[in-house]
Amino acid sequence: MQGEFRGSFGDFLAMKRKEADLTIKDVARWLHISTAYYCYFETGERKAPERLVLDRLAEILELSHTERLLLYDLAGKTRGIVAADLPDYINSNPYVRVALRKARDSKASMEQWLNFIKQMDGAKEAGR
Fold first, then answer.
1. What pTM did the predictor assign?
2. What is the pLDDT of residue 128?
3. Of 2, 5, 36, 103, which one is least surrounded by beta carbons within 10 A?
4. How far apart, in whole angstroms, are the C-alpha atoms of residue 21 and residue 24?
C-alpha cells in the first residue's frame, strides 16, 4: 500500500530526484520544460502535471512500480482527481463504477476494503 510516505507530491519529487543524484536543471531538461516550471512542481506552487509527464518523471527518476503508483496518487491529490493510472480502467469497466458507488453509498469501512484487497490478491495467486 502507498500509506508509508507522508509528504506531498513535491516532497516526493524532490526526495526521489536527490536520491537519483539529479539537479532540478537535469530533470527539467529531460522533460523539455523550464527549470522554473519544474520548480513549481517541487514547491507545490503548481498542480502536478498530466499523465504523460508523470510517466516520463517515473522513467527519469527510475521509480519502482510501487513508487510510480505513489507518484500517481500524490499527483492526483494535487489535482483533486483520481490517480492518473485509474481513469481509463474505471471508465472502460462499468462494473468498477458500480462497485465504487456501492462502496461509497454503503460507507465501506477500511476493514471491508482490506478484505476485498486480500480476496483479489488470493484470486490473483490462484490464477497463476
1. 0.80
2. 62
3. 36
4. 10
